[in-house]
C-alpha cells in the first residue's frame, strides 16, 4: 500500500492498492513480471534467498512480484494477513481441503455449493478417505442441526453465501461460532458477494476463497482463484499443497485480476442496482412462479443477508410457472442475455443449473439442495437494466 494512502477509504485502496515492488520505473501501472525464474548475483546470494535469510524471488511457481501484488491486495480487501493466488477457484477449494484434511478425517459443508465443489466433496474426496458431511438447506441456519455432524475428525466447516445457484443465505457468524467451539476453521467461498459486499473474516471465518474468474477479474477473460487467511494458515496451505502440487497463478492472469479489481466497486454498485430492479420486475411477471434474490423482502433469509452484506450482488435465479420445458424455451429465445455458465462478467449471462453448472448433482441430490429442475440462473451484467428486462420480456412472451 502506498504510504500516502494509509488512512484512505476502502474504495481508494481498491484503486491504489499496493505499490509495485521490485521496480524503479515510474509506470502508473506496474509491469507484468512474465518470468519463470529469477537471477542471483552470486552463489551466496542464491543460498541466502533459498534459506530465507534474505528476501527475494526464486521461481514463479513459488512466488512472483505480480502475483504477490494481487495477493497483498486481496489480503487487504479481505482483512487477512496474507493470501495465495491460484490457477482457478477450484484449485483454491481443493488446496484448502487437501492441506487441512488427512485420510480418516471429515469436513462439514453446506450442500448448495458450486457444482465443481460439490463433485469434489461428494465424489472425489472419498478416494483420499476424506468424508464430506452435508448440511441441507433447511438446516443452514440451525446450529442445533449442524453441531451433531461435527466430531473430533472434522477438520473444517465450509459454506458458500449467497449459495450457488439458489441464492440461499448462510449465517456466517453462526457457523463461525460453531467452528470456534470446536477449534476448527470456517472456510467461506465469498465468490458471489466479492470482498466489497461481504467480509467473512470480520464475521469470524478463518479462510476466504474466491473464484477470481468471476467478480474479481470481472471481465470474463481469465480463470483464477484466491485463498485468504492469516500468516500461519496461508503458510501451511502453500507449503503442504500449493507449492508442490503446483496450482500457481500466471503473472499475466494476476495482472488482469489487478486491473479488474480497480473497477470492482463501481461494477458491484451497478450489478447490485440493476439486479434489484430486474428481480422486482421478475417477481411481478405473471409467468414467473418464484424469484430467488436475497435483496427481495420475500427471500426467506433476507434479514441475514441484510445483516452480513453491504448489498445483495448481481446474481438471481427464478422458476417459470411452466416448468423446465418453458424454461428451455426462454433460454433459447433470449437475444441480449448470453447462454453461458460463469458469472460476474460485464455481459448478462443466463444458464440452466440442472443441465449445466449443477449437472454434477444427481436428480435426487438436486432436490435435496433445493434446486428445482427448471431453475434458471441470471448473472446481471453492466448493460442498461431496461434492455435486460426487455430481452427477458420478449423471451417470456414466447411461452404460450
Ligand atoms: C466458479 C466458481 C468456483 C470455481 O471457480 P473456477 O475459477 O471456475 O475454478 C467456485 N465457487 C464458486 C461460488 C464459483 O462461482
From TrEMBL:
Can you say what this protein is called?
A: Methionine-gamma-lyase
Q: Which GO terms describe its cellular component?
A: cytoplasm
Q: Which residues carry this modification: N6-(pyridoxal phosphate)lysine?
A: 214
> What InterPro entries has UniProt attached to this entry?
Cys/Met-Metab_PyrdxlP-dep_enz, PyrdxlP-dep_Trfase, PyrdxlP-dep_Trfase_major, PyrdxlP-dep_Trfase_small
Needed co-factor(s): pyridoxal 5'-phosphate
Q: Which UniProt keywords apply?
A: Lyase, Pyridoxal phosphate
Q: Tell me which Gene3D superfamilies the record gives.
A: Aspartate Aminotransferase, domain 1 (3.90.1150.10), Type I PLP-dependent aspartate aminotransferase-like (Major domain) (3.40.640.10)
Give GO BP annotations, semicolon-separated.
Answer: methionine biosynthetic process; transsulfuration
Q: Specify the domain of life of the species encoding this protein.
A: Bacteria
Extract the GO molecular function terms from the UniProt entry: carbon-sulfur lyase activity; pyridoxal phosphate binding
Does the entry feature the keyword Lyase, yes or no?
yes
Protein species of origin: Desulfocicer vacuolatum DSM 3385
Similarity comment text for this entry: Belongs to the trans-sulfuration enzymes family.
